[in-house]
């Protein structure tokens, strides 16, 4: 195992729900000390409570990863991190002309720019220790543009570019630190509630437990890229065709109809008696 989780400190942004929460629980079960950063003041604390009730080690901070000052001070409070999982993400799921300017800006602030603020906070320590891993949770939408995802898909293409550039930069400088990018198709967490897939055998909507388990296995084994399901890995081959053919193939696969019935996550109300480990 290149990056065993046992005994390591693993920070997961957006670790209060969905894939982030399952990654936090799974990393703790594999012996990691888990730190959760989440915008929601309650969900991170709830995830920690669940981990601790099973004998795991976990702390949470309520922090908005788009807020550079909050990121810097939360990083000081968090201390050294061995594995950083940049997982926090949002989606609007609207046509370009239907999305508000603020929704477009927020998508890039969370899905793209926050990668810079959070990674820059922890990378110097990793480089000084000549050990560490930066995980970027991008998306299959970071490999192919999808109707009703002009902001989301572009922000995830940027995440792929970020992780790949970082990977070669860290290797070129012989830092001992790795960068790993994850590009999953839809996962049944509620973030993309309502999406439909035309060919579930080729392009299944992934179960959150399956996706989180694959990601944790890939972290430990030292993979640098994880694209799932397998069929999505054929994209570079299809891209060798003329772009108009590529679009027709994506349409035939139903990719550009997946978002037709998208509703997205309906935010649960925050309980009034919120438990927060730390507020930043
Ligand atoms: N669900 C999918 O179909 C799917 C597919 C491919 C990639 N992804 C990516 O996986 C990641 C996790 O997705 P998910 O389905 O678990 O989503 P989710 O909505 O269940 O969880 C996202 C978490 O991020 C947190 N968050 C949002 N904005 C934040 C901010 N500014 N600061 C801190 N925390 C913030 C939320 O509070 C939430 O706990 C995202 O980056 C998403 O883009 C999801």
Automatic annotation (TrEMBL):
Coiled coil: none annotated. Residues 8-178 form the Ketoreductase domain. It comes from the Bacteria. InterPro entries: KR_dom, NAD(P)-bd_dom_sf, Sc_DH/Rdtase_CS, SDR_fam. CDD domains: 17beta-HSDXI-like_SDR_c (cd05339). Belongs to the short-chain dehydrogenases/reductases (SDR) family. This is SDR family oxidoreductase. It comes from Brevibacterium gallinarum. The lineage of its organism: Bacteria, Bacillati, Actinomycetota, Actinomycetes, Micrococcales.
């Amino acid at each position: 195992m290149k990056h065993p989780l046992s005994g390591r400190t693993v920070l997961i942004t957006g670790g209060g729900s969905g894939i982030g929460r399952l990654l936090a629980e799974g990393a703790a079960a594999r012996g990691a000390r888990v730190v959760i950063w989440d915008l929601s003041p309650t969900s991170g604390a709830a995830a920690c409570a669940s981990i601790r009730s099973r004998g795991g080690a976990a702390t949470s901070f309520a922090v908005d990863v788009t807020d550079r000052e909050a990121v810097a001070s939360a990083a000081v409070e968090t201390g050294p991190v061995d594995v950083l999982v940049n997982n926090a993400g949002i989606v609007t799921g609207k046509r370009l002309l239907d999305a508000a300017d603020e929704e477009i800006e927020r998508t890039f602030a969370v899905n793209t720019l926050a990668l810079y603020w959070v990674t820059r906070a922890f990378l110097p320590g990793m480089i000084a220790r000549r050990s560490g891993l930066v995980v970027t949770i991008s998306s299959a939408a970071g490999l192919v543009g999808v109707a009703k995802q002009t902001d989301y898909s572009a922000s995830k293409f940027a995440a792929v570019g970020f992780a790949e550039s970082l990977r070669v930069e860290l290797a070129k400088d012989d830092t001992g630190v790795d960068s790993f990018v994850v590009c999953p198709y839809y996962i049944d967490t509620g973030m993309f509630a309502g999406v439909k897939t035309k060919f579930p055998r080729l392009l299944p909507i992934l179960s959150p437990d399956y996706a989180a388990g694959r990601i944790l296995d890939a972290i430990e084994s030292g993979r640098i890229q994880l694209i799932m399901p397998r069929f999505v890995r054929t994209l570079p081959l299809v891209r060798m065709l003329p772009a108009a053919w590529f679009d027709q193939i994506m349409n035939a696969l139903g990719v550009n109809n997946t978002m037709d019935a998208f509703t997205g996550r309906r935010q649960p109300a925050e309980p009034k008696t919120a438990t927060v480990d730390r507020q930043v």
